[in-house]
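Risk register update: the risk of archive-format incompatibility is retired. Evidence:
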Amino acid sequence: MSYVDDVALDLAQLALADAERTGDDKIVDQIGELLGASSQTLQESYLTFVRIRRAEARARQILTARAAKPAG
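Archived output:
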């Protein structure tokens, strides 16, 4: 991974953790806007990692729910 990706992933994880802790998703958008004002490349990578993490969480929820149901 590149330096930009490392930073973007770290920021995405921190923002999503803060959003989960506080129940306020606006922080994710605020960080994205802040990054876009300075570095569009970093913003794009950050937003990609946010989408990946959210998609992963949704997929894991579905798989966990399926695993809790009896087979058959």
